[in-house]
């Protein structure tokens, strides 16, 4: 009975996690349609991830050069730094992709709005001629 409840709980948690990650595109405090602000947010996130990535790479390089200074905890440190590097590389790639996507959306929106303004001006000029 306990095993069944446990499996049910795990499956509900897994489903809720999967469902929440699908809808997790909202950035707190930024309107979904403000693509310029979203671009800036993701570029800042990429800069932070890059800084943390470089810090962890430097720490791992120091460990590899002087592993004898780390004692028994050296392997744990190496594993932790390697995992951090992998995680920050993923965050960096995702942030850059999101920034690029929102930058393209901003450019497309800007291009379409200028085309619409040109059409309005053209319509106004034609009506003035008649």
Report on this model:
With 130 residues, the protein is mostly helical. The chain has a domain at 41-107. Helices cover 83% and strands 0% of the residues. It contains three helices and no strands. It has helices at residues 2-22, 35-65, 74-129. The longest helix has 56 residues, at 74-129. The chain is flat. Mean pLDDT is 80; it is low at 19-24.
Topology (SSEs and partners):
Elements: H1 2-22, H2 35-65, H3 74-129
Region (Disordered): 107-130
Signal peptide: 1-24
Protein name: Small metal-binding protein
Features:
130 residues, Small metal-binding protein, coiled coil, mainly alpha, signal
Helix share of residues? over 70%
Task: Report the span from N to C terminus.
Answer: 84 Å
Major β-sheet annotation? none
Q: How would you spell out the order of helices and strands?
A: HHH
Shape field: flat
Report the count of strand segments: 0
Q: By helix and strand content, what is the structural category? A: mainly alpha
Low-confidence stretches: 19-24
Strand proportion, as a percent range, falls in under 5%
| Rg over alpha carbons | 25 Å
> Which assembly state applies to the chains in this document?
single chain
Mean pLDDT, to the nearest integer, reads: 80
Number of helices: 3
């Amino acid at each position: 009975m306990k095993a069944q409840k446990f499996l049910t709980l795990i499956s509900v948690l897994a489903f809720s996690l999967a469902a929440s990650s699908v809808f997790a595109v909202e950035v707190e405090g930024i309107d979904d349609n403000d693509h310029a602000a979203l671009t800036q947010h993701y570029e800042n996130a990429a800069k932070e991830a890059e800084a943390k990535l470089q810090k962890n790479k430097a720490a791992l390089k120091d460990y590899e050069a002087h592993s004898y200074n780390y004692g028994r905890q050296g392997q744990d440190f190496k594993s932790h730094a390697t995992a951090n590097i992998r995680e920050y590389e993923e965050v960096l790639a995702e942030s850059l992709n999101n920034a690029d996507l929102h930058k393209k959306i901003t450019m497309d929106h800007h291009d379409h709005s200028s085309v619409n303004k040109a059409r309005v001006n053209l319509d106004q000029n034609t009506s003035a001629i008649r």
